[in-house]
């Protein structure tokens, strides 16, 4: 297992991070099996585990907490996130001081730990000033409840704004960014990754298998069962009748040929690709089964040379997204029509 320093934090993490999103109701509901998978990953040298409060409504954090019980806590770099709605009621989501102070205590309890190594803001919140968010996160660092904090799936302009606010206000800053990055979704190469390098941020990437499209399970000319597995969560990402998915399948065929030429599997190529970028610290892969974890561990030693990366660039040009990788959040300017239209009275007067 290889290790890299997480931005400027001085924390060393494995190049491959165990993602815990599939532990719990939405993936593997067998807690004992999930614990075995986590233990196997740790025993093989993975020291970095990433989860979130909203994964299976807190169940993922509970499973991770069970797995860490009885093990040396200082040997594991533990990351979780805050932002999305947790339970019913108002003010149980977002990036406000009020909610973060509540959410971190709930996460600590579920995880069964006294501190979180990396606490991440899961998405932007345009109802809360970023100064408010940075301020409370800095307080949590000083209290010892978290060691460092970062953002997840933030647009580059919002990362820059957060750094400027931190500098102007004398606040601690985001030390990491977590973004979707794969052979089929290279959009972050355009600006997110250069911005992260400029601010010496660690970068964790997620969905290297493109929601399953790069597992080798979905191939051109084969029917796709939209009623089971990942397709039930994201049917529009798998329906081969949609042009965007037909384009992905064409690309998968070319990447499969490349993997065969390199003497590896398509998933191994997919997992190795993000780790080749100089801005990327760790690649998150979220196995649901022990077999999937073993596939991840098999891919861990693989590195890609310049010739392989040149061929990838020919198949999927740098900075290209063949699909929108983040379906969980849309910028308010796109999601809310009121953000794009003047009040009718103003339009009539103008």
Question: Describe it for me?
Answer:
The chain is an alpha/beta fold and 350 residues long. It has a single domain, classed as TIM Barrel, CATH 3.20.20. The chain is 39% helix and 13% strand. The strands form 2 sheets. The chain has an 8-stranded parallel β-barrel with strand order 3-4-5-6-7-8-9-10, surrounded by 5 helices. A two-stranded antiparallel ribbon has the order 1-2. β3, α1 and β4 (48-50) form a beta-alpha-beta unit.
Count of separate DSSP helical elements: 13
Please tally the β strands and state the result.
Answer: 10
**Which structural class fits the helix and strand makeup?**
alpha/beta
Per DSSP, what share of the residues sits in E-state strands of 2 or more residues?
Answer: 5-15%
Could you name the CATH topology? TIM Barrel
CATH hierarchy: architecture: Alpha-Beta Barrel
CATH superfamily: NADP-dependent oxidoreductase domain
Physical arrangement of strands within the biggest beta sheet: 3-4-5-6-7-8-9-10
In the predicted model, the low-confidence regions spanning at least 5 consecutive residues are none
N-to-C SSE string, H for helix and E for strand: EEEHEHEHEHEHEHEHHHEHHHH
């Amino acid at each position: 297992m290889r290790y890299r320093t997480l931005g400027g934090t001085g924390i060393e993490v494995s190049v491959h991070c165990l993602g815990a999103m599939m532990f719990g109701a939405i993936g593997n509901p067998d807690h004992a099996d999930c614990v075995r998978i986590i233990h196997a990953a740790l025993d093989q040298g993975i020291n970095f585990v990433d989860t979130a409060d909203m994964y299976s409504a807190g169940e993922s954090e509970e499973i991770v907490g069970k797995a860490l019980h009885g093990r040396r806590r200082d040997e594991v770099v533990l990351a979780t996130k805050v932002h999305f709605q947790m339970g019913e009621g108002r003010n149980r989501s977002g990036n406000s001081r009020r909610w973060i102070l509540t959410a971190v205590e709930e996460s600590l309890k579920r995880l069964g730990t006294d501190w979180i190594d990396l606490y991440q803001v899961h998405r932007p919140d345009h109802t809360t000033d970023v100064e408010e968010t940075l301020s409370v996160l800095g307080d949590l660092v000083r209290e010892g409840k978290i060691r460092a904090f970062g953002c997840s799936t933030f647009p580059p302009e919002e990362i820059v704004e957060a750094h400027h606010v931190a500098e102007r206000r004398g606040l601690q800053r985001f030390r990491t960014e977590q973004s979707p990055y794969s052979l089929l979704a290279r959009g972050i190469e355009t600006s997110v990754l250069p911005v992260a390098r400029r601010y010496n941020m660690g970068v964790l990437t997620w969905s290297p298998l493109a929601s399953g499209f790069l597992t080798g399970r979905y191939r051109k000319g084969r029917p796709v069962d939209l009623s089971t597995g990942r397709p039930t969560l994201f049917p529009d990402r798998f329906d081969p009748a949609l042009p965007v998915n037909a384009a992905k399948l064409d690309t998968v065929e070319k990447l499969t040929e490349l993997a065969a030429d390199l003497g590896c599997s398509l998933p191994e190529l997919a997992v190795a690709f993000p780790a080749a970028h100089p801005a990327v610290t760790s690649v998150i892969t979220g196995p649901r089964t022990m077999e999937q974890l073993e596939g991840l561990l098999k891919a861990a030693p693989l590195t890609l040379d310049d010739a392989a990366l040149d061929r990838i660039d020919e198949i999927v040009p740098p900075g290209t997204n063949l699909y929108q990788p983040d379906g969980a959040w849309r910028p308010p300017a796109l999601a809310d029509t009121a953000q794009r239209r003047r009040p009718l009275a103003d339009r009539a007067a103008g």
